[in-house]
Structures are given as structure tokens and as C-alpha cells.
Amino acid sequence: MPYIDREDRPDIDVLVDQLDKLMETSGDCNYAITRLLHTYLKKKTLRYHNINEVVGILECAKLEFYAMIAQPYEQQKAAINGSVGVLSEVENLTLAKIDAMLNNLRQSIQDSHGPCF
């Protein structure tokens, strides 16, 4: 998770800001990330646990980026341009509707098989 303590951020932010000035392409960014992960791993013993930790860092960073940047952007575009189509009915489901559907299903099961949960 990228939400480190606020007091730990400034030293890292200074370096990231300096690095940002040098990066002009996606290749530059990929290289910087790869080097950073190699440097991080080099401080540890090369073993599966540590390699898996680095893969986890990448996966969590990807998921965080998607949740904070890509998903809101896609939702905005869907609101502007409309849904793809087939799944548009799913978009209209709210938690209240889902809860009502589950309660109806639960009641149907109880009506036909007696109380089970």
C-alpha cells in the first residue's frame, strides 16, 4: 500500500520529483521502475519469498493505479458516452436492489425447503 506515514514521504518525494524531470517516455518510466525493484531486491537474499514480494509490490501498485486513476476515468467516460450495452442492466443494480434480490431468493428457498439459514 502506498499510504506511508506523512513524515516518511518528503525524502522520497524529492527523489521522485527529480526522476520525473528525466523521464520522457514510457520506456524511461519502465526502466526506472525496473532499476528500483532490482536495487530493492539486491539488498535482500535472492530467493522465492523476496521475488514474490517484489511481484506483490508491482501488483499492488498496478491495482492502486487502476482504482485511483483508470477506474474513475472509465466511469466518467461511460457516463458521457453510455454503457457498452449488454452489461448496462448490471450498472443499474444498487446495493439496495441486490439486497432485495437476495432477500427474495432467500424467501423463495425458505418457502420451498423450509428455513435453512
What is the general shape? elongated
Gyration radius from CA atoms, angstroms: 23 Å
H/E order of the elements?
Answer: HHHHH
Largest sheet: none
Task: Give the terminus-to-terminus CA distance.
Answer: 37 Å
What is the tally of beta strands? Answer: 0
Number of helices: 5
Please give the domain count.
2
Low-confidence stretches: none
| Global structural class | mainly alpha
Task: Please give a quick description of this structure.
The chain is mainly α and 117 residues long. The chain has helices spanning 9-22, 26-42, 48-81, 88-91, 95-113.
What key phrases describe this protein's structure?
mainly alpha, single chain
Task: Summarize the structure in words.
The protein has 117 residues and is mostly helical. It has two domains: 1-82, no CATH class; 84-117. 75% of the residues lie in helices and 0% in strands.
List the helices and strands and how they pair.
Elements: H1 9-22, H2 26-42, H3 48-81, H4 88-91, H5 95-113
